[in-house]
Amino acid sequence: MAETDPEIDPEIDWTGLRAEAEQARLRAYAPYSAYGVGAAALAEDGRLVTGCNVENAAYGVGLCAECGLVSQLHLTGGGRLTRFVCVGGRVGAEAELVMPCGRCRQLLWENGGASLLLLTPAGERSMSEVLPDAFGADDLA
Hints:
By secondary structure, this protein is α+β, with helices and mostly antiparallel strands.
């Protein structure tokens, strides 16, 4: 992530937010895949929220890092997410930026909306770019 990269807003502390995601990844419970994921985000009031993946022997009931992050958002007062970073990698390997899965993109849309900014392997992207034509609360009205 070069400082002169036109895809990155220099006013956003993506480095600090990524460091928080990397710390969350170290707390992941991933005994089956050995692939830890950490996520970090800022809420509109400046709060930092984080999450890590939690695997389960019944694979389908594992929790993605974003699930824990969104739970922490609501546990600590709710609000909207404004910035988000997700990292992942094999235990013992260096963390890399990763994209949220489809389920988690929907969670992020619900809690941050179209303008939520994500740091992705391709640079800074809005939720409307990573989940175009999203289904949301307006569709239920």
